[in-house]
Automatic annotation (TrEMBL):
Entry-linked InterPro entries: GH, GH10, GH10_dom
Identification of the protein by name: Beta-xylanase
Signal peptide boundaries: 1-29
Family stated for the protein in its record: Belongs to the glycosyl hydrolase 10 (cellulase F) family.
SUPFAM superfamilies documented for this protein: (Trans)glycosidases (SSF51445)
Superkingdom, taxonomy of origin: Bacteria
Sequence ranges assigned to domain GH10 in this UniProt record: 50-345
Keywords of the record: Carbohydrate metabolism, Glycosidase, Hydrolase, Polysaccharide degradation, Signal, Xylan degradation
A Pfam family it matches: Glyco_hydro_10
Catalytically driven reaction(s): Endohydrolysis of (1->4)-beta-D-xylosidic linkages in xylans
Alphabetized SMART domains for the sequence: Glyco_10
Leading EC class: hydrolase
Enzyme Commission code(s) on record: 3.2.1.8
Length: 347
């Protein structure tokens, strides 16, 4: 690598250089290892990471975020509580910050999420609505947000986490007041507001074939029969070593593919009960390798996103006490066995 580039990258890159990871552009591809994004691109896939606004002041963090990935998801910045904190008052600050950063780094954006039961603002959950009122609130939120990001995002997670584990509809405020038709309505409204964005339904524990993924399979077929705009199914893939690997993942991806739908692994992390022993990290690496291979094996699996890339900013320890070490880079931003396993699978 030429001296002037090293100087540009600066002291912060010392650790990365030591690890053999530098932040070049494709023009320098011959003198540094390919990024996960570049390796994925060779297969016509993307490799993405979630990120969140508070982390963006960490320059060592943003250096890797900006170089290793070609797809970005805002972990929180586009959720309802953030974007419509008062009824009819929209705040794009956090979402825009991430979209602008991604575009500066020539990355695309998986936008997340429009309709969910969680992280809703108090004004919405703190009172009763009639069905007509709630439908109007939902329509306005979707159309205003999707219109704001029109042409700037690759896809939308339109509805998030709509089903229970047994494949019945989750009794959210949307379902209870509007019935199951809220999903088709949301997709139609989003499509009107940005006809080019890919529209997804997204959920966890739908990696394997089972009652919950069957519910999505059936719903997808029903929506297609009604000509509702639906482009893909997002499998969050928040996996945990103690629950076993979803061995039917590839078959599951393939059945959605056969419906003519895209699929994506949208929020991947593989947590473990701490401490993270060498053995657990090796098993985790195997799982990262296997899920990457599963996506590559299915034509319409368009890409993989990790739910942030470093244990430093993982949501896991706060939500699953005693668990963690779920991501391919450790808290010091050093690549773990999982990172090398992903590279292996992409090679
Ligand atoms: C998580 C964020 O990462 C956290 O920062 C936040 O406190 C809670 O939500 N499924 C999803 C994501 O679809 O939106 C969630 O993100 C993780 C689970």
């Amino acid at each position: 690598m030429p001296k002037n580039r090293l100087r540009l990258v600066g002291a912060l890159a010392t650790a990365l250089v030591a690890a053999g990871l530098t932040t070049g552009t494709p023009a320098q591809a011959h003198d540094r290892p390919a990024t996960l994004a570049e390796l994925a691109q060779r297969h016509g896939r993307y490799f993405g990471s979630a990120t969140d606004n508070p982390e963006l002041t960490d320059t060592a963090y943003t250096a890797l975020l900006g170089s290793e990935f070609d797809m970005i998801t805002p972990g929180n910045g586009m959720k309802w509580y953030a974007t419509e904190p008062q009824q009819g008052v929209f705040d794009w600050t956090n979402g825009d910050e991430i979209v602008n950063l991604a575009h500066k780094n020539h990355q695309r954006v998986r936008a997340h999420t429009l309709v969910w039961h969680s992280q809703l603002p108090g004004w919405l959950t703190g009172r009763e609505w009639t069905a007509d009122e709630l439908r109007a609130v939902l329509k306005k939120h979707i159309q205003t947000e999707v219109r704001h990001y029109r042409g700037k995002v690759y896809s939308w997670d339109v509805v998030n986490e709509a089903f229970n584990e047994d494949g019945t509809y989750r009794e959210t405020l949307w379902y209870k007041m509007l019935g199951p038709g809220y999903i088709a309505d949301a997709l139609r409204w989003a499509h009107q507001a940005d006809p080019h964005a890919k529209l997804y339904l997204n959920d966890y524990n739908i990696e394997a074939v089972g009652p919950k993924s069957d519910a999505y399979y059936q719903l997808a077929k029903d929506l297609q029969a009604q000509h509702v705009p639906l482009d893909g199914i997002g499998l969050q893939a928040h996996l945990a070593l103690q629950y076993g690997y979803p061995t039917t993942l590839e078959d599951n991806l393939r059945r959605f593919s056969r419906l003519g739908l895209d699929t994506a692994l949208t929020e991947v992390d593989i947590r473990m009960i701490l401490p993270a022993t060498e053995e657990k990290q090796a098993q985790q690496a195997d799982w990262y390798r296997d899920l990457t291979k599963a996506c590559l094996a299915v034509r319409r699996c368009v890409g993989i996103t990790v739910w942030d890339y470093t244990d430093k900013y993982s949501w896991i320890p706060a939500f699953f006490p005693g668990q963690g070490a779920a991501l391919p880079w450790d808290e010091q931003l050093r690549p773990k066995p999982a990172y090398f396993a992903i590279r292996d699978a992409l090679k």
